[in-house]
Protein 1
Amino acid sequence: MNLSQYTKEFSYNLKLAYPVILGMLGHTLIGIVDNIMVGKLGSTELAAVSLGNSMIFIAMSIGIGFSTAITPIVAEAEAEKNESKIRSTFHHGLFLCIILGLLLFLLVILAKPIMELLHQPKEVISLAKPYLDWVAFSLVPLIIYQGYKQFADGLSLTKYSMYAIIMANIVHVIINYCLIYGFWIFPKMGILGAGLGTVISRIMMVTFMHFILIKREILKPYFQDFSFKEIKKTMLKKIINLGFPSAMQMLFEVVLFTAAIWLCGIIGKTSQAANQIALCLASTTFMVAMGLSVVSMIRISQQKGLKDYKNLIIIARSIFLLAILIEIVFALLFVLLHNYLPYIFLNMEDHHQLLDNQEVVVIAGKLLLIAAVFQISDGIQVVVLGALRGLQDVKIPMYLTFISYWIIGFPISYYLGQYTSYKAVGVWIGLLAGLTAAAISLYARFHYLTKKLHKNSEIKV
């Protein structure tokens, strides 16, 4: 194997990836800011935000997963120089994202009674419900924004979503500070202020994204003369056929992590708070792999459009290798800093919360050691999944992810968390098992498909 043929792709991969990574980090940062600011109010408030966001993450995963169908079709159409296909994909994709955003908002509101069925602490539920109402509404602008983002990503215009997210985060921090703690003319709203801050920042984010794209001369033809008469069943069906399995893939993983929140909630509120801290940190580093996954999807789609399967394999492997190297660095950082990072999220000067907080720090430190290991598995599975989406192969990966997370991962999490002394640590061992199974099976699928495509193309030549 000639390593240089892969490493020479690193610089372009990173150039395309860094705006996506920063954009993804921006999404995560909105949740982290809520956790840090609310964490200063107390561990009960932190657990409430964790519980509320666990339901939002499920809905969000469906919306974001579904919207990824837009990118490979647009990227493939750009390689084919088919402008009418790009325009049609954008309009149909945005139309579907608007409908899906509204449906997900209603679904989360209707699903609130599930909290009681999950045996979560009563004081946590009473705080989580009103917070959830606001954050659920923020799903509408968020999923619409995804329609714009995936369209721009498909055209390799990855910087614009980064600008929108940076703006949204600045607005979010300011509004959060004013509404959570009370400042000047603003009332002290506690965790409700965090929910309202999320809504306002996401409405501004989608508005900003619309205007920044429409002002680009090269994109103006795609924004003109939208009509419902243009909506065709064939394109809707194509996006849904790609989007639904992609949404399910993301849903299976996110619900596994959400189940970890619920399992830790059953163990106790300190375990739930510790899980939330570890999850926040692991999610932050995971965004780098998510960014590379988008690059994988874009570049593989382009090579598919060009029918250059030899180069497709080289590009894919270069992205896989880059992801592994970066995740190893993060793994080492988690090992070195596992006893220090949890303090960022807690107010250790609050004497009433001191015993709880000390317990949270100990549990979170242990979870970060496991997170260090699964960084690598998580990174591999998500970039390979991006490559498979680029090939528009989504149904078999949907089944593979279900088996990995729910036939392998969850039973281990449940058993070790509920029936052994491992408790929260056992829950995370299950997460590691599920992610590793996904990484191995998805890579095997990608290797099989690309080998077949390359062989068929050589026969035709």
Note: The longest helix spans residues 269-306.
Protein 2
Amino acid sequence: MSISFKSSRIQNWDKTITTIPTKRFITDSFKNWRGMQESGGRRIKRCLYLDQNSVRFLNQDDIERLHDFRLLDSYLTVKQSELLSWNSQLDEEERLPVNSRQLTNLGTFRAYVENYLRENQDIRKDMTLLVRQMAPTADGLPLELYCFTNTTAWASYEAIQSDIFDHLLAILPEFGLRVFQHPSGADMRTLRLPPAQ
């Protein structure tokens, strides 16, 4: 880095050199990658956009099947006990499904993702790890993963992030959930319109 009265030359992370007018250091913001490199972890902050129409309550068959998932067995046992305790306090007429607490496929998937990340050897356990539901949008319901890889190397980071999302996209149907995406040409071909008269 070299700084003069009128401009500054900065070496970027990819070894390119950028010349910036010195006054822009006061008016603009810049990313400094040094903190990321010194921490030893690189942040993953990405969303899966889920189709809100696929969110539903789990039935007993779903729950029994999901107990076979090693990452969910403990969660389901604790959650079922909590819900049973809560629902047992309701009066007989209040025990309708609409008044009771129940497991959902989305909440259970969220627990699965968090446990999956906690067991992933490429994810830092000593840094922030969140799986959170964001506000719904016209493009679906965002489920955000926020965690840090145990490496700052770009290629390794991208491979770790891709492996995580490959797995989550592949296992999503096991929870009865769908990814939201806008219709494509292939979707339009499957529509059967009545013949024109």
Note: The two ends are 72 Å apart (CA to CA).
Protein 3
Amino acid sequence: MNHQETEALASPLSSAGGVGGEAGSRGYLISIVMVAVLGGLLFGYDTAVISGAEKGLQAFFMEAKDFAYTDGWHGFTSASALIGCIIGSALSGFLATNLGRKRSLIVAGLLFFVSALGSMYPEFLFFEYGQPTYSLLLIFNFYRVIGGIGVGLASAICPMYIGEVAPSNIRGMLVSWNQFAIIFGQLVVYFVNFFILGDHIQPLVEEMGRGIAAITPAAQWTVTTGWRYMFGSEAVPAGLFALLICFVPETPRYLVSIGRDDVALRVLSKINGSSKAAQILKDIKETMVVKTEPLLTYGWMCIFVGIMLSVFQQAVGINAVLYYAPRIFGDMGMENPMVVTVFMGVVNILFTLVAIFTVERWGRKPLLIYGSLGMAVGALGVALTFGHEGLELVTAAAIMVYAASFMFSWGPICWVLIAEIFPNTIRGGAVAIAVAFQWIFNFIVSSTFVPMFNMHLTPGDDFGHWFTYGLYGIICLLAALFVWKLVPETKGKTLEDMTKLWSKESNKHH
């Protein structure tokens, strides 16, 4: 690597705090973490933008003459970004190890940007504008998959980046801001979609079946134009992220792994102060005798714990609960379920803040265990009350308890642990595997919820309702047991301490 490339890794932002002095620059640390957290906001924005756009998009493609746009196609189109998420998270380890954390995030930002513009205008260069066809549908899904790859990369590398630059005493709090940004990104896009719609309305399903001519004039704009603006709106935060990430430094751990100890020391000094930086650099070098090691160097339990953290984060069923919340609120007779959904989004943000400000005081394990028990109460509450006349408010309260419990526990803390639990020399690959499992189980839970929920043992019974939420409640209890028995507490430990911990665990089993 030449001198110019080394300086690029240090970045213009690196000069923001001088040399850091004895105390280091907290402002410098916050500025680079806030840029990385923008990746989390884009993660939330990209995965939630479909919620406002999908009805207009469905009506648009139902006008196609060369194929029938079925419910199956619409389900695939609504979820196609998840396929990209699985690909992106699987690639994240390779890219983070070979390109570095910073350059991988630049790639993610560019993918977000291309996806936003491509989803808004999929006809670009090859197709006639406004004419839905089978080929156009494939191209549209291609752009959504590209965005999903960006989400997959950001979901793995943003927490990794923050975890590797943050001092151990505030690392949990700073990584938790990434989850806050994800939830905030979802809330932002709800408002953006709401403002884009303005006086226009979403088309009704029965109108769609009769063709665009039957759709009311106020809804036709949504079908021809509205969904495009919703997808295109992501280009603004995506472009900002891709630009700003160019001005942050590469992480000290990665710099040491490519032999750039001088640049690593400079970054560490700005964050931690010069005397502390020298000790941290020494600890990093002791655990990085080689750039990478085989994944199972520290035993299978290390990888297993990381994978199961990801599996439980999704298997507790939170996404199915959140996806179905607007419909439940609608069934309760509320005039505008979207307003209640936005209110729940605000509650989610407040409880994510609880995690941010308590994770360093209470530790990771207690928050996960209490959150699991709270989710179990919420899920079982929904199972017992859903569909019973007069208990609608109890069902709504149970959903709120379920979501709030997730937001102060598994939502942020799972990302904190995935960012810090693995030894330095296997972190890139191990994080990639863990996050890939997260997206795989996200897809499994999202795609199995409706069939499970609609199951009946006898015509008209509620078997599927209580079975589905009862199952999620039991999984929440198993998650609490898993954390209690197998997950190590990482509060206050350096990333290098994790190498020593897993080395001891590995030696116990030999």
Note: Residues 134-165 form the longest helix (32 residues).
